[in-house]
């Protein structure tokens, strides 16, 4: 399409307007994040004023007595996420290694699709399955929640692990074979040391995701505010208690629940930041090679 | 030319069986076992969803998708309001998030480059992808629902906030793939930056942007937590996003998962199947678009 | 360029259309000259009423609303559940048009009620079952002090001597008891704990109220349905669930020893028997707990619909009155089928009379 060059000012205006829109859209990200931080800390202030720092250290949560201690829920979040990671990591890395190193080409594509399918299933469907099919056999506990969370974070860890593993230099792998290594020995010698950093990052991203998961945890964790090491005991996690108690919370309780949300926000952000830093650094290292 | 085994062994071309080779076999088996372990829950869940959900969705085919939701105790199909709700709320979220996200990506790649501001935005977009969905829901509750009451639009806003950073990152990746030569040719012909982006760059990146956005939509359609505080709950069809309670498949599944009666649980499975089919379809379309685009190249 | 404009235009159009559609169905406008008396019986134009609260009455509300909407197509009703605490809170904040609640407003909460005076309309009676899930026990007898000790964690195993004492011949396993209670602010909890307070002879130590400080190692469910679900899917569980929900979930429940010393099974009839001797106050509140009489089920309670006496919107007020008179009138015959007990005649008459107080 040939156009006559338009020398009127409209053209410049249109161009500038477009650029302005673009910057505005980008700035929206900053605006939203800032608003989240500001409005939520604001709403959490009443409970912090009421409880002081005890909000984070007290293990008593009672609407009855207006005492709100977040510790049992911080514990529940961390504990179930830890269980999920312990269960998911060996499996995810194993699958990633299998797909990248062992699977013949005709198997690779379907396996990748399998993992993608797992990633697409909404978490509420896993929650439904967990409640109606798993809970009758396992009862509701930290462990049951951990298992469902593990199923949900496997695709994330696997995809990222795959990416990291595939950046292993072909020359390193061939060198190992040339020295007479079996395939497993090659993996041990060339792939794993190289991918170690990235794998740690992938695991932490999975951890972050597990910590923030609401629905599945809310359904199978048992909803009991207790701090226990026994994984078979019932517990509660921050997002689950927010989802469960929000409906009829008093004003102070709502403020306490928002306080939990802010705490969760801060924790997941820190985990995600550390994770992506680690992944970034390991990817950079390999590009250099 | 294939060597007979004995000859190969004589020439020491196949490894002898030692501890090392056994270990290799064991580890290979374990890694394969990992794949099986991953497949098991997926298969179990899919079997439950398709068998139990199919029993109510396919047996009562159009009725399940169109009828109002019956009272909890009453058995029978009906998830129409939830399906329309999911489609409308997710649709509105897409209308908000995709244009804004694409524009944001355009800024990052075409205007901002590696400037401090652009780097900050990129970083914050990555931070935003990690925000738990329940935090987004509470945020929208505070800034929107408290002022405008429970309505479908609040849910759409919350979902849009979840989708925005995903669309930005995916779109930026797609824009990066557009060869610079195209842009330069366009400038050489005298086009403005805006025109170049709109008529040359975006069309070139469109398949990637569309498929990336579809994946974001699929993710949003499955979200529950952001809707819990913002849309309310209703059993009858609500065709407006701005007035009155609304409902969605994900929220309904969550509610029914907490009920003890078979009638409600059946409908929960049916809704789960509907939701899974929806998200799968979106994902498959996204993959097909990507495949077609790469094949064309 | 043109395609982008087209897309922008069509999405704006879509936006506008969905806004407009909503307005047509939105809250009706005030009609002129409608401030005094004379309420027109049949409101014209669509009216929406929303409610939330007690899950005890939820099954009844849903069925009643369903059939009411069939005969009144221009009135839309929704009942959200969420527990009596939520209902009272939502009504106080004027977020809903009426609340379902199994308990009254506490004195200290009365100040937060924004819309003026409230009226209590009783709509049904029913029993709270002590439901359980344990092998070898299909028909347990439990006395109130045993129930109290189980729920506060003093009795930890199913084969505890206190339970065995009332159940000679039952083979109870040495399994741990998993106590299930409500996570939300619940009128069922309120009434159940009030009963334990009065009837357990001092054994109950945890006070009473919509929420209680339950011991650790218990589990919580959302609504009566949620507790029912946890009990039915957890081995060794015990929980308090209203009869209607317990039966719908096919749970086993215990016969409780009443004031006359008899172990009574919770049924619609034994709840009616408990409702016979109630002492009704002027505002139509009362308690049916721990009632006298051989056939009375001791943990019988009630549910009210709470509304504002002064209705701001006359159309909504008229629709509300219509629905309420249906609830306390014709809809009562649905109750036995749902395992509730209908209102005793004297109470029903008082409730109908109170309808006139809604302005």
Amount of helix of chain C: 25-40%
How does the overall form of chain B come out from the CA principal axes? Answer: flat
Largest interface: A-B, 84 and 87 residues
Q: How large is the count of helical segments of chain B?
A: 12
Alpha carbon gap, first and last residue of chain C: 60 Å
Written as H for each helix and E for each strand, in order along the chain, the element string of chain C is HEHEHEEEHHEHEHEHEEEHEHH
The number of helices of chain C is: 11
Distance between the termini of chain B: 37 Å
Shape of chain C: elongated
For the largest beta-sheet of chain B, the strand count, sense and barrel status come to: none
Order of helices and strands of chain B: HHHHHHHHHHHH
Q: Mean pLDDT across all residues of chain C, rounded?
A: 84
Beta fraction of the residues of chain C?
15-25%
Features:
heterotrimer, A: mainly alpha, 79% helix, globular, B: 297 residues, mainly alpha, 12 helices, flat
Tell me briefly what this model is.
Chain A has 289 residues and is mainly alpha-helical. Chain A has eleven helices and two strands. In chain A, helix 3 runs antiparallel to helix 8 and helix 10 (238-245) packs antiparallel against helix 11 (251-288).
Describe this protein's structure:
The complex is a heterotrimer of chains A (289), B (297) and C (359). With 289 residues, chain A is mostly helical. Chain A has helices spanning 9-51, 54-57, 71-102, 105-120, 123-138, 142-166, 170-178, 183-212, 215-220, 238-245, 251-288; strands spanning 61-62, 67-68. Chain A has a two-stranded antiparallel sheet. Chain A starts with 8 loop residues before the first helix and ends with a helix. The mean pLDDT of chain A is 88. Chain B has 297 residues and is mostly helical. Chain B is 76% helix and 0% strand. Chain B is built from twelve helices and no strands. The radius of gyration of chain B is 25 Å and the shape is flat. Chain B starts with a helix and ends with a helix. In chain B, 55% of the residues are buried. The model of chain B has no long low-confidence stretch (mean pLDDT 89). With 359 residues, chain C is α/β, with parallel strands linked by helices. In chain C, helix 2 (58-71) links the parallel strand 1 and strand 2. In chain C, strands 1, 2, 3, 4, 6, 7, 8, 9 and 12 form a nine-stranded mixed beta sheet that branches. Chain C has a three-stranded mixed beta sheet with strand order 5-10-11. Classes of the chains: A mainly alpha (289), B mainly alpha (297), C alpha/beta (359). At the A-B interface, helix 1, helix 3, helix 4, helix 5 and helix 6 of A face helix 2, helix 4, helix 5, helix 6 and helix 7 of B.
């Amino acid at each position: 399409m040939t156009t006559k060059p338009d020398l009127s000012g409209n053209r410049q205006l249109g161009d500038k307007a477009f650029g302005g829109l673009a910057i505005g859209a980008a700035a929206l990200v900053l605006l939203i994040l800032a608003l989240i931080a500001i409005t939520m800390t604001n709403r959490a202030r009443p409970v912090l004023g009421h409880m002081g720092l005890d909000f984070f250290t007290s293990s008593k949560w009672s609407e009855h007595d207006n005492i709100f201690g977040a510790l049992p829920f911080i514990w529940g979040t961390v504990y179930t996420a830890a269980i999920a990671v312990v269960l998911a990591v060996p499996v995810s890395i194993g699958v990633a290694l299998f797909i990248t190193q062992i699977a013949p080409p005709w198997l690779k594509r379907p396996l990748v699709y399998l993992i993608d399918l797992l990633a697409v299933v909404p978490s509420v469907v896993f929650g439904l399955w967990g409640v109606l099919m798993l809970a009758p056999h396992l009862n509701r506990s930290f462990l049951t929640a951990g298992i469902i969370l593990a199923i949900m974070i496997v695709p994330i860890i696997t995809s990222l692990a795959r990416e990291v593993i595939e950046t292993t230099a072909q020359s390193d792998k061939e060198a190992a074979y040339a020295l007479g290594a079996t395939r497993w020995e090659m993996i041990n010698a060339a792939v794993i040391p190289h991918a170690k950093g990235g794998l740690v990052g992938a695991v932490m991203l999975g951890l972050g995701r597990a910590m923030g998961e609401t629905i599945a945890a809310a359904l199978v964790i048992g909803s009991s505010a207790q701090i226990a090491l026994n994984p078979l005991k019932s517990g509660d996690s921050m997002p689950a208690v927010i989802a469960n108690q929000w409906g009829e919370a008093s004003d102070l309780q709502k403020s306490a629940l928002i306080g939990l949300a802010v705490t969760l926000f801060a924790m997941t952000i820190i985990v995600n930041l550390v994770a992506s830093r680690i992944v970034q650094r390991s990817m950079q290292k390999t590009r250099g090679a | 030319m294939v060597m007979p085994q004995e000859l190969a062994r004589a020439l020491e071309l196949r490894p002898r069986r030692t501890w090392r080779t056994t270990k290799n076999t064991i580890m290979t088996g374990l890694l394969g076992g990992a794949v099986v372990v991953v497949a098991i829950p997926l298969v179990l869940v899919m079997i439950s969803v398709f068998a139990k959900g199919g029993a109510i969705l396919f047996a009562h085919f159009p009725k399940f998708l169109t009828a109002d939701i019956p009272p909890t105790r009453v058995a029978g199909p009906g998830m129409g309001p939830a399906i329309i709700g999911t489609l409308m709320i997710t649709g509105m979220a897409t209308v908000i998030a995709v244009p804004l996200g694409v524009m944001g990506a355009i800024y990052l790649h075409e205007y901002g480059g590696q400037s401090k501001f652009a780097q900050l935005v990129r970083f914050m977009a990555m931070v935003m992808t990690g925000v738990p969905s329940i935090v987004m829901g509470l945020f929208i509750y505070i800034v929107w629902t408290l002022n405008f009451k429970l309505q479908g639009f609040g849910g759409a806003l919350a979902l849009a906030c979840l989708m925005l950073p995903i669309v930005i990152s995916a779109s930026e990746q797609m824009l990066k793939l557009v060869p610079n030569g195209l842009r330069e040719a366009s400038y050489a012909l005298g086009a403005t930056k805006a025109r170049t982006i709109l008529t040359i760059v975006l069309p070139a990146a469109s398949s990637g942007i569309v498929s990336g956005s579809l994946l974001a939509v699929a993710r949003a359609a499955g979200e529950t937590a952001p809707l819990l505080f913002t849309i309310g709950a209703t059993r009858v069809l609500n065709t407006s996003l701005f007035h009155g309670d609304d409902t969605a498949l994900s929220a309904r599944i969550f509610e029914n998962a907490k009920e003890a009666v078979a009638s409600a649980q059946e409908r929960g499975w049916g809704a789960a199947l509907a939701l899974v089919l929806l998200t799968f379809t979106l994902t498959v379309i996204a993959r097909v678009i990507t495949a077609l685009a790469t094949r064309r190249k | 360029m043109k395609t982008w404009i087209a897309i922008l235009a069509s999405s704006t159009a879509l936006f506008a259309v969905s806004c407009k559609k909503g307005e047509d169905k939105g809250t009706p406008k005030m009609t002129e000259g409608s401030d005094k008396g004379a309420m027109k019986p049949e409101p014209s134009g669509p009216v929406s009423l929303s409610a939330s609260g007690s899950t005890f009455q939820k099954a009844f509300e849903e069925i009643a609303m369903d059939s009411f909407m069939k005969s009144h197509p221009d009135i839309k009703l929704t009942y959200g559940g969420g527990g009596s605490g939520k209902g009272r809170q939502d009504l106080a904040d004027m977020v809903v048009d009426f609340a379902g609640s199994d308990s009254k407003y506490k004195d200290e909460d009365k100040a937060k009620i924004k819309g003026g005076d409230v009226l209590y309309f009783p709509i049904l009676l029913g029993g709270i079952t002590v439901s359980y899930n344990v092998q070898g026990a299909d028909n347990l007898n439990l006395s109130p002090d045993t129930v109290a000790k189980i729920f506060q964690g003093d009795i930890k195993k199913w084969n505890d001597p206190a339970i065995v004492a009332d159940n000679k011949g039952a083979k109870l396993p040495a399994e741990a008891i998993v106590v299930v209670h409500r996570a939300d602010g619940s009128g069922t909890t309120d009434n159940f704990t009030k009963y334990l307070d009065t009837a357990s002879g001092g054994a109950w130590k945890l006070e009473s109220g919509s929420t209680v400080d339950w011991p650790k190692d218990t589990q919580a469910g959302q609504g009566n349905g949620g507790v029912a679900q946890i009990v039915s899917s957890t081995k060794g569980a015990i929980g308090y669930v209203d009869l209607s929900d317990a039966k719908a979930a096919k749970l086993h429940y215990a016969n409780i020893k009443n004031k006359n010393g008899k172990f009574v099974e919770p049924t619609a009839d034994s709840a009616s028997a408990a409702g016979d001797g109630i002492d009704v106050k002027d505002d139509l509140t009362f308690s049916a707990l721990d009632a006298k009489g051989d056939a009375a089920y001791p943990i019988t309670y009630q549910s009210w619909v709470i509304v504002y006496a002064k209705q701001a919107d006359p159309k909504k007020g008229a629709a509300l009155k219509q629905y309420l008179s249906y609830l306390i009138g014709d809809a009562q015959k649905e109750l036995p089928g749902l395992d509730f007990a209908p209102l005793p005649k004297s109470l029903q008459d008082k409730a109908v009379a109170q309808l006139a107080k809604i302005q």
